[in-house]
Design goal:
It is built from 1 helix and 35 strands. The protein is mainly beta. Strands 1-26-25-24-23 form a 5-stranded antiparallel β-sheet, with no helix packed on it. A hairpin with a 5-residue loop joins strand 5 and strand 6.
Length: about 450
Amino acid sequence: IAGAANTNEGAGSGSTEPPPPAANVWPMMGHDPKNWYYNPAETTLSASNAGQLAEKWRFTIEGMPNGSPAIAEGKVFASATGGLYGIDLATGKQIWSRSDIGTTSSVAYDDGAIYVLNLTPPQLYKLKASDGTTIWGPSVAYDPENSDGESSPIIAAGKVIVGHANTPRELSLDANAAPGARGGVEAFDATSGEKLWTYYTLPEVKAGTENGASVWSSVAIDVDASTVFATTGNNFTVAGPNSDAFHAFDLVTAERRWVSQVRKDDLFCLACGGDLATQDMDFGANPILAEVGDRKIVAAGNKTSTFYVVDRKTGEMVWARDKLSASYTGLYGGIFINGAFDGQHFYVVANDSDTETANVYKLDPNNGADVWTHKLDDVTWGATSLANGLLLVPNNSMLYVLSAENGEVLNKFETGGTIAGGAAAIADAHIVVKSGLTYLANVTANDQIICYGLP
């Protein structure tokens, strides 16, 4: 592992940190509706004691455990394709489990309840955090038939909001299945489970019109501006202006505000001769809401190794930083999973497919310039996370603890399984990560939840 010299230390955005939550918790995939992947309430763990961190416990689950765990009420809430679990944070002992709900997305915690989107069929549940019993659900998330529940629930303003992914496997096998396939976002009332609205990324489609533009990832929500932001996937057989794009729409009515496409003509259908070397270069993770000076922005990276920043109100491109890796593929990036933000800087990981390595960047949010860079010797499948000067970076099965200030490696852990889809949660003086991935590349499945802490 080699770190690069600091090239722009001290650059900052003038942003204001979000107010600390009422408790030191990690409630949802990106920690908050703005997707900062940053816990400002964690003050026990720090750069000065990161070298003392050690493994506290492991918990084996059923199925593949993609996504971020949630930490609240002294518990860890963890989802996998084979079940959903409530685990005691201090001891690693199981408190409750649900084998009837399985997902590749993250759970979300709010006010004593857990929200989870089942994978197939895509159905949303609200459960008691104390014992896992159902409060409401299943609420059918969306059609068409045979869609998957890939998106993680985001909670804000009394709503539960999930992305809408359409039929990828069917389209891979049969190009004629493309008409009718379109992405979207659904909102549900958090109290009752009633579906409130659907935002479609495409108009109603038929043969010969644009199809695809799924929202595989999770949305970001600006409650003050009553706006939801989503990033979309590729089209399948017919291109159009809504794929590989930022979408902004109203939180109450789902009325479209603007769409900003960053890459045109990204078609991918295996039955049509799709090529992962040149296609499927879309957004794979949720957008980040931030402020640069007085300007409110939304940012996201895609698989072309480009990190984009656009104006939150208009969709105008502010800046784009490309070539964060020398090579990339639709299989696992470039920027396979989006970055993190601590109120001052962006932290982004870009995979280099030719060398099977990853570059970690701390970027100035004013212009995308490097503050520091750090090279890791494997591919990153998961998301970064931040707390109190610590930057956690998953790199295949390794979890690195870096100094957010200068990129120095403070500690590292071999989890035994590929960390994928989400981030290590940091809360209540603990770090909890999910490991184990079954995929098409050189990854390792061990299906475990692992907790690290101080002696």
